[in-house]
C-alpha cells in the first residue's frame, strides 16, 4: 500500500510539471465556431426539440405575455415533479437554488417543500423568466459574448457535440439565426457518466 502511494505521488508530480496538466485538470478543451446543427441535447436530440424551444419562439415573434405564461407553466410542472421525488434537473438547477435562497432570506424553514409559500415560487420563476428574456435582448443587441465562468459545455459523440450545460443559450442562438455557436468547452474523455477514467484522474490530481 505504501509503495502504491509512492507511485501515485511520482505520477502526480510528473503531471504537475507537464504541459498536460491544464487539459487533464479541466478535462476539456475549447471548440470555437461549432456549427449549430452539430449541437445536440445530452440525449442526442436536435436542440430545436427541447421543450422550451417554442416558448422562446413565441417571445421572438412578439408574444411576450403568451411566452411568459407558457414558461411559468413549464417551470411549475417541472418543479412540482422534482419537489415530489427530490431529484431531476430542476432539483439541482438555478431555479431550485434561487427558491431555496429566497426562503433562507426570509428565515423560513421549508423542509425541502418549495411550495410551502407559493408566492416565493412565483417570484423566483418570474425572476428567471425575465433574466432569460433579457439574455435574448442582449444577444440581439450586442451579439453572443461567451462567459468564461459559466461556459457552454458538452462532450463529443461522432461529429456532434452533446450539451451538458448551456441549453438555453444554444436554443436562443439557433432561433436568432446564428450559423455557429462561438464557443463550447468540450470534455476530452466524453460523457462523465459513462467514462470510468474521470474519477481515477480526479483522485490522482487531488491527492
Largest sheet: 5 strands, mixed
Label the structural class: alpha/beta
Mean pLDDT: 81
Indicate the overall shape: globular
**C-alpha termini separation:** 15 Å
- Strand order, sheet with most strands: 1-5-3-4-2
Low-confidence stretches: 19-26
Q: Helical content, roughly?
A: 40-55%
- Tally the structural domains: 2
What percentage of amino acids are in beta strands?
Answer: 5-15%
Helices and strands, in order, run as: HHEEHHHHEEHEH
Number of helices: 8
Radius of gyration: 21 Å
Number of strands: 5
Description:
It is globular and about 45 Å long. Helix content is 52%, strand content 14%. It has a five-stranded mixed β-sheet. A hairpin with a 2-residue loop joins strand 3 and strand 4. With 207 residues, the chain is α/β, with parallel strands linked by helices. The longest helix is centred in the middle third of the chain and has 25 residues, at 118-142. Mean pLDDT is 81; it is low at 19-26. The protein has two domains: 1-27 and 193-207, no CATH class; 28-187, no CATH class. Helix 6 (118-142) crosses helix 7.
Task: Summarize the topology.
Blueprint lengths: L1 H16 L3 H6 L1 E8 L3 E2 L12 H8 L3 H22 L8 H12 L12 H25 L10 E5 L2 E6 L1 H9 L4 E8 L9 H10 L1
Parallel strand pairs: 2-4, 3-5
Antiparallel strand pairs: 1-5, 3-4
List descriptors:
14% strand; alpha/beta; globular; single chain; 207 residues; 2 domains
Amino acid at each position: 500500500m505504501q509503495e502504491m502511494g509512492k507511485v501515485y505521488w511520482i505520477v502526480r508530480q510528473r503531471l504537475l510539471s507537464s504541459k498536460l496538466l491544464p487539459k487533464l485538470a479541466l478535462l476539456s478543451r475549447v471548440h470555437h465556431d461549432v456549427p449549430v446543427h452539430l449541437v445536440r441535447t445530452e440525449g442526442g436530440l436536435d436542440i430545436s426539440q427541447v421543450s422550451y424551444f417554442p416558448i422562446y419562439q413565441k417571445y421572438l415573434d412578439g408574444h411576450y405575455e403568451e411566452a411568459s405564461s407558457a414558461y411559468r407553466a413549464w417551470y411549475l410542472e417541472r418543479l412540482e415533479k422534482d419537489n415530489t421525488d427530490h431529484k431531476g434537473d430542476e432539483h439541482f438547477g438555478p431555479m431550485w437554488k434561487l427558491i431555496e435562497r429566497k426562503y433562507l432570506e426570509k428565515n423560513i424553514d421549508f423542509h425541502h417543500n418549495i411550495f410551502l409559500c407559493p408566492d416565493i415560487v412565483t417570484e423566483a420563476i418570474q425572476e428567471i423568466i425575465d433574466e432569460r428574456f433579457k439574455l435574448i435582448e442582449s444577444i440581439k443587441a450586442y451579439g453572443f459574448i461567451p462567459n468564461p465562468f459559466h461556459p457552454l459545455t458538452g462532450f463529443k459523440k461522432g461529429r456532434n457535440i452533446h450539451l451538458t450545460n448551456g441549453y438555453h443559450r444554444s436554443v436562443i442562438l439557433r432561433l436568432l439565426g446564428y450559423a455557429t455557436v462561438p464557443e463550447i468547452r468540450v470534455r476530452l474523455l466524453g460523457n462523465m457518466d459513462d467514462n470510468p477514467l474521470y474519477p481515477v484522474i480526479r483522485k490522482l490530481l487531488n491527492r
